[in-house]
Amino acid sequence: MARINLRPWREELRAERQKQFVVMLVGAVIIGAGLAFLWNAHMDSQISYQNSRNAYLQNATKQLDKKIREIEDLKKKREELLARMKVIQDLQGKRAIIVHVFDELVRTLPDGVYYTDLSKKGNTLSITGMAESNSRISQLMRNFEKSEWFTDPNLSNVSAADSRKAGYSEFHMTVMQKAPDVDLEKKK
Predict the structure, then answer these.
(1) What's the start-to-end Cα distance of the chain, in Å?
(2) How far is 26 from 52, CA to CA, in rounded Å?
(3) Exposed e or buried b for every residue in 170-182, given b needs 16+ CB within 10 A?
């Protein structure tokens, strides 16, 4: 007798294939989820590593900025000290000039004339004084012209003194201070 298989073999084969497909699909999803998890973990570790590098660079930058500010402060202090030293050196160099100027003021002063007020602005010396006569004021101006330390005397005002100083004339003049030529100093 012939054996007849009445079972639906095609349906069984289809069901078997569907089971295999579902198993392969679940396996692929599990493998895909595992790969996604590994990729995510790797990216998280890379991000945290880069964040730590960024934090290190920020700290190093802050320290360098602080050092730069300190260097700038030191440069400012250095410039201030150099400016002070220059002023002191200028004063030291001009100290002898002041002595010469006062000495020359006395040398140019003729008899019968005296100063009541001296003021200096830049190289201009303003002089107020009293003189017995106008000829003495003229002699003072000639003396300033001959001087190596003064030039350009300019008489701005001559007036009679008040009643307490009868016979005197009050004068106002300006004269420019100059430094004498070095060659003239060496010849003396």
Answers:
(1) 159
(2) 39
(3) bbebebebeeeee
So what CATH class is 90-187?
alpha beta
Q: What sign for the dihedral angle of Cα 161, 165, 166, 171?
A: negative
Beta bridge partners of 171: 129, 158
For 15, the token pair is: 């069901």
Three-state SS string over 36-67 comes to HHHHHHHHHHHHHHHHHHHHHHHHHHHHHHHH
Whether residue 91 contacts residue 143, with contact meaning beta carbons closer than 8 Å, is answered with no
Q: At what angle do helices 9-108 and 134-146 cross, to 10 degrees?
A: 130
Q: How far is CA 158 from the centre of its chain?
A: 49
- Tens digit of each residue's pLDDT (9 = 90 or more) over 83-131: 999 988 877 776 777 788 888 888 888 888 888 898 888 888 899 988 8
